[in-house]
Design goal:
Helix content is about 40%, strand content about 25%. By secondary structure, it is α/β, with parallel strands linked by helices. It folds into 2 domains: about 180 residues, 3-Layer(aba) Sandwich (Rossmann fold); about 70 residues, no CATH class. The strands form 2 sheets. A 6-stranded mixed beta sheet has the order 6-7-8-3-9-10, sandwiched between helices. It has a 4-stranded antiparallel beta sheet with strand order 2-1-4-5, with helices on one face. The longest helix has 24 residues. The radius of gyration is 19 Å and the shape is globular. It starts with a strand and ends with a helix. The model has no long low-confidence stretch (mean pLDDT about 95). Bound molecules: adenosine-5'-diphosphate and magnesium ion (MG). Magnesium ion binds next to helix 1.
Length: about 260
C-alpha cells in the first residue's frame, strides 16, 4: 500500500449544487511538500476541508495511506489563517490541551513539558504564560503551528497560514516551517494553500494549480530547487523567474476564462 494522501475523482458542491470541485485526482507521496495555488474562489479551502475530513465529496474518494478519510483525525493537523486558539487559555494551556487529545494517557506535568518544548521550537519561549490577546499576529501564528506540531500528525494541512502577516514575519515563519519540516524524520506530508507564487516556489516540492468554475487541476509542476534553499539566491535565479512566469501565465489565463464565462 502506497504511503500517500490521495484524491480520486473528487467532485464537490455546496447545497445549491453549483459545482465547486470537479474530477480532482491527486496523489501526494508521504513526505512531500505540496503548494496549492489558485485564484480566489477556485476551491482551495474547500479542497483542504475535504482533506481535513470537515466536508465530504459528492463523488469520489479521499484517503491517507489507503484508509478512507471519514472525518477529522489526529493523522491530519490543520493550520488556518484565523488561528483558532482558545482566548481564555494561556498559550501553553492551548498547546497542552492538544497534546491531551493526542496522548490521553500523558500526565498533566508531562503535557505541560511537551507543550513548552513545542513553544520553544517555534521561538515562543517568552510567551508561554501569555494569553492569545497579548500576542502579535505573527506570534499567534507561531502558537498555531506549535499546536499543530504538538499533535505529531504525519500530515499538515495549511490554509494561507501566513496570509495576514507582514512580509518580514511571513518570511520568518516560512523559514521556521521549512526548518521544522526539513529536520523531522520522517518528514511530514504538507498541503499548503497560498495565492502567493513566490511563497509556493520557496516552500514547495511541487505546485498544483486549481483553476476556477468549477475547480479543476490545471497544472502540476515539480519544483526541483535543492533544499536548504537560500531565499535571496533562489529569488535571483533564472530558473525561479522562468517557473514564476509560467505559473503567473497559467493563473492569468484562468482568470481570463473566468471573466469570459461570467
Ligand atoms: P478559495 O479558498 O480558493 O478562495 P473556497 O474553497 O473558499 O475558495 O470557495 C470556493 C467556492 O465555494 C466559492 O465560489 C465560494 O463562494 C463557494 N463557497 C465557499 N463556502 C461556501 C458555503 N459554505 N456555501 C456555499 N458556497 C460556498
Ligand atoms: Mg480560501
Amino acid at each position: 500500500m502506497a504511503s500517500e494522501l490521495r484524491l480520486e475523482g473528487v467532485d464537490f458542491s455546496y447545497e445549491d449544487a453549483t459545482p465547486i470541485l470537479e474530477k480532482i485526482d491527486l496523489a501526494v507521496p508521504a513526505g512531500q511538500f505540496v503548494c496549492l495555488l489558485g485564484s480566489s474562489g477556485s476551491g482551495k479551502s474547500t479542497l483542504l476541508r475535504l482533506l481535513a475530513g470537515l466536508q465530504f465529496p459528492r463523488h469520489g474518494r479521499l484517503s491517507w495511506n489507503g484508509q478512507p478519510i471519514t472525518g477529522p483525525s489526529l493523522d491530519r493537523g490543520v493550520v488556518f489563517q484565523d488561528y483558532a486558539l482558545f482566548p481564555w487559555m494561556s498559550v501553553v494551556d492551548n498547546i497542552a490541551i492538544a497534546i491531551g487529545k493526542a496522548q490521553p494517557k500523558a500526565r498533566k506535568a508531562e503535557r505541560r513539558e511537551q507543550a513548552e518544548a513545542c513553544l520553544v521550537k517555534v521561538g515562543l519561549e517568552n510567551a508561554i504564560g501569555q494569553y492569545p490577546f497579548e500576542l502579535s499576529g505573527g506570534m499567534r501564528q507561531r502558537a498555531a503551528i506549535a499546536r499543530a506540531l504538538a499533535l505529531c500528525s504525519p500530515v499538515l494541512l495549511m490554509d494561507e497560514p501566513f496570509g495576514a502577516l507582514d512580509p518580514t514575519n511571513r518570511a520568518r515563519l516560512q523559514d521556521l516551517l521549512l526548518e521544522i519540516w526539513e529536520t523531522e524524520v520522517p518528514r511530514k506530508t504538507i498541503v499548503f494553500v497560498t495565492h502567493d507564487i513566490d511563497e509556493a516556489l520557496y516552500l514547495g516540492d511541487r505546485i498544483v494549480v486549481l483553476g476556477s468554475t468549477p475547480g479543476r487541476l490545471i497544472a502540476d509542476l515539480p519544483v526541483g530547487f535543492p533544499r536548504h534553499r537560500e531565499r535571496r539566491a533562489l529569488f535571483d535565479s533564472a530558473e525561479f523567474h522562468a517557473l514564476r512566469e509560467s505559473i503567473a501565465e497559467t493563473l492569468a489565463a484562468d482568470t481570463l476564462r473566468q471573466l469570459v464565462a461570467a
